[in-house]
Amino acid sequence: MPFNALVVERNEEGRTSASVERITHDDLPEGNVTVNVAYSTLNYKDGLCIGPGGGLVRNYPHVPGIDFSGSVETSDDDRFSPGDKVVLTGWRVGEVRWGGYAQKARVNADWLVGIPDGLDERGAMSIGTAGLTAMLAIDALEEHGMKPDAGPVLVTGASGGVGSVATSLLAALGYQVSAVTGSSQSQDYLRSLGASDILDRQALAETTKRPLERETWAGCVDAVGGTTLARVLGQMKYGCSVAAVGLAGGAALPTTVIPFLLRGVNLLGIDSVMQPVDRRQRAWERIAQLIPRRHLEEVTSVRTLADLPQLGKDILRGQVRGRVVIDVNA
User: Are 41 and 128 in contact (CB under 8 A)?
Assistant: First the structure.
């Protein structure tokens, strides 16, 4: 029985195009679990894969979508049975492998996590890869000593997917959150998620010759990288940590080793793609316990497969706020 998928094609001249097409089970890649996909989401990597690929896509035609939620249709693995509610993030799905922008997906059982109590399929994708990354970042910061009474915690790129969920989770944990955004229209939105203070991103966008500035932050979830991350490192309190989760502001890091040597600052790299399944499961369970349900609605908008070609362009231009959930069956 044919079903819908967003398929990206590349012509002989190297140009790509994306459109909703009808495909069948026979088109799906190998795997031991087939999932009836309910929802996927929009992420920066998806924007790259919908467009020219950004070096992520190896073969065409390609179905993007780096995460999805749904119910198991068939399984050759004892860990999953038909009807089980599952979520998938990472493992290069949607990049090297076909992903969640289809009504069905076939994957390896090792890549799946059961949706924890307290979340449904849509809620799991309101969180998605971005929210899981935010939780992993907070886990790492707390493992390195971050506590609510140590001072304010900075979230850069706060109006984006990772930043929005990080702001909500940190506030739920009792932290004083300072949110950095370039959008004046996002201030009320971020305060509704629990941000105590709003900083204009221009305040951190310029380089400085001083390797150290006033000790301000007890922790930071940084989704920007580049000059912003360099400035933040010089503003961290002694012995505190930054969790680097993105590079919206660039991959270069124009800084020195001084913050690490004189203040004992820690720079923690956060990867959600290849995280072991036990850490993923713990992170999802913690999210289900912490995330305010009203925040899931506030950070989420729902769109369709047909909207994705334009959405892919929008997210690469920084024109997407919060979490965009894709209803693949709409």
Answer: yes
Quote the tokens at residue 273: 């793609």
Residue with tokens 């935010």: 134
Give the pLDDT confidence score for residue 322 in this predicted structure. Answer: 84
> Do 58 and 240 meet the contact criterion of CB atoms below 8 Å apart?
no
How do residues 26-40 score in pLDDT, each as one tens digit?
999 999 999 999 999
CA distance 262 to 154: 21
Cα gap 68→99, rounded to integer Å? 8
Rounded to whole angstroms, the Cα distance separating 48 from 57 reads 9
Angle between helical axes of 161-172 and 277-290 (0-180°, round to 10):
60
Do residues 220 and 153 lie in contact, with contact meaning Cβ atoms separated by under 8 Å? yes
Sequential DSSP letters for 267-323: EEE---SS--HHHHHHHHHHHHHHS-HHHHHHHEEEEEGGGHHHHHHHHHTT---SE
Name the region of 71 (left: φ>0; alpha: ψ -120 to 50; beta: rest): beta
Residues 211-224 have pLDDT tens digits of 999 999 999 999 99
- No. of H helices and E strands in the chain? 9, 15
Name 17's bridge partners. 9
Q: What pLDDT is recorded for position 213?
A: 96
Distance CA 2, CA 24 (A): 5
Give Cα separations from 327 to 163, 216, 269 (angstroms).
22, 41, 31
Low-confidence ranges of the chain (pLDDT < 70): none
Environment class of 65 (CB within 10 Å of its CB; exposed 0-12, middle 13-18, buried 19+): buried
